[in-house]
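Researcher: Please predict.
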Amino acid sequence: MYRKIGGALNKLGGKGLSRIDVPDARAATEGSGDPDDPKHWKGPWKSVTNPVGIAQEVCKVNPKQYHKAHSTPFGSGPVAQLFGRHGDTPASDSLLEGAVPADLPSTTMPETIRGLCTLATPIPTV
C-alpha cells in the first residue's frame, strides 16, 4: 500500500528531476544581484516543474559547469599535457599501474601531487 500511495503522489517514481529552483529574473532589483549567478543571488526564486523547462534551465547552466575544470592542473597546463587529452600517455599508464609519474613538472602543486598519490593507490580487487 505504501508503494501505491508513493507512486500516486510521485508520478516520476523517484527517477530524475521533478523540480528545480532558479533565480526569478523577472523580479530582479538593484540589490538582488545577477540572476545568472545563483550563488550570489539574493532575490526571489521560482520553481520549474515542466520537463521541457527543466531541460532548458539545465542546458543554460551546463556550459559554465563543464568548463570549470579548465583552470585546474588537469584541465590545462603542464600536468594536463603530461597526461594528455585522452589519458593515453606513458604518465597515464604509470598512474594506472599504481605509480606517480617521475616526470611531473617541478611546479606541480603539493595538493595535486597528493591527489595523484591517492589515485595511484591500487584499488583492491574482490
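Model: The CA atoms of residues 2 and 8 lie 10 Å apart.
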